[in-house]
């Protein structure tokens, strides 16, 4: 399990630092990951795990994917594994639900090569390693200074993944995972140009929900694959900044023609109580193909 903060430090936070930050308009909370809070009675643990497995089973069917063995067994394995995660994060990055989805998807997709664009503190790299111990992982992030977990076998780069030479990788044995707050339509086009057909996206948000997400990675997969919208652009504000997704966007049309199948997984919150996840599986038409 994750170590608890020292008692004296926790008292200092509650009695002195938190009131001070409150007056300044900020929240000061310990960097405890959501999975450090968990049921311990056997019946409630079983209910949580069985509910999550049932939802994941429906999502796998909708994605056209075959799980790696029994999903409930995988969920149980993850439940035992996640307390050993070497990353502590409360805000930003993946929580329990997103990490669970990534774990079972990587086990199902069985990639020998994984391209990870957007690393943050390293939790998702660790999850990928736990799911695919022998995979070669390529981690790309413009800022690697915040890593809490650095995989000893992975290759790290601060260059954008699209600038790397991937000619030595077999696209059929590769999965690309994007959690980088870059336009998801752009990533689809880039991946297709390199022969990749199996993609995972975090933070895929529909137009009416994108204001609540951490980065304006639009057009998102939901915007690209969703029903026809009105000619009105999608507009929103976040942290005082204004954003707009044009109604008639060439990138949406181009990316849409490359996507063979896309499915956004259930956020799992109703099953686990943990922070909602937003993982989407995308299958692309093979290079030279299209809709």
Keywords, separated by commas or semicolons:
Rossmann fold; seven-stranded mixed sheet; alpha/beta; two-stranded antiparallel ribbon; 9 helices; Methyltransferase domain-containing protein; single chain
Structure description:
It is built from nine helices and nine strands. It has one domain: Vaccinia Virus protein VP39 (Rossmann fold, 3-Layer(aba) Sandwich), CATH 3.40.50. With 291 residues, it is of the alpha/beta class. The strands form two sheets. Strands 3-2-1-4-5-9-8 form a seven-stranded mixed beta sheet, with helices on both faces. A two-stranded antiparallel sheet has the order 6-7.
* Count of DSSP H/I helices: 9
Within the largest sheet, what's the order of strands?
3-2-1-4-5-9-8
Label the overall shape. Answer: globular
Instruction: Report how far the terminal alpha carbons are from each other.
Output: 48 Å
Count of folded domains: 1
Q: Write down the CATH topology.
A: Rossmann fold
- Summed over residues and divided by their number, the pLDDT gives a mean of 89
């Amino acid at each position: 399990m994750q170590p608890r903060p020292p008692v004296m430090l926790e008292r200092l936070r509650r009695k002195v630092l938190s009131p001070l930050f409150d007056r300044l308009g900020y929240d000061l909370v310990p960097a405890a990951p959501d999975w450090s809070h968990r049921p311990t009675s056997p019946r409630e643990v079983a209910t949580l795990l069985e509910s999550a497995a049932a939802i994941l089973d429906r999502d796998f069917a909708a994605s056209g994917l075959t799980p790696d063995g029994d999903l409930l067994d995988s969920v149980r394995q993850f439940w035992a594994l996640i307390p050993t995660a070497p990353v502590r994060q409360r805000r930003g990055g993946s929580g329990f639900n997103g990490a669970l989805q990534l774990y079972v998807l990587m086990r199902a997709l069985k990639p020998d090569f994984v391209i990870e664009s957007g690393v943050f503190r390293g939790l998702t790299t660790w999850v990928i390693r736990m799911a695919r111990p022998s995979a070669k992982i390529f981690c790309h992030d413009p800022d690697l200074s915040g890593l809490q977990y650095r995989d000893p076998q992975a290759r790290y780069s601060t260059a954008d993944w699209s600038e790397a030479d991937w000619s030595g990788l077999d696209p059929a044995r590769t999965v690309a995972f994007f959690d980088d707050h870059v336009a998801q339509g752009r990533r689809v086009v880039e991946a297709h140009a390199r022969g990749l057909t199996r993609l995972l996206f975090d933070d895929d948000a529909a137009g009416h929900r994108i204001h609540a997400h951490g980065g304006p990675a639009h057009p998102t997969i939901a915007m690209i694959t969703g029903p026809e919208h009105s000619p009105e652009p999608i507009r929103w504000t976040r942290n005082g900044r204004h954003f707009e997704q044009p109604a008639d966007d060439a990138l949406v049309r181009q990316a849409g023609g490359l996507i063979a199948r896309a499915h956004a997984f259930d956020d799992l919150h109703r099953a686990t109580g943990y922070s909602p996840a937003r993982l989407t599986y995308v299958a692309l038409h093979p290079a030279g193909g299209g809709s």
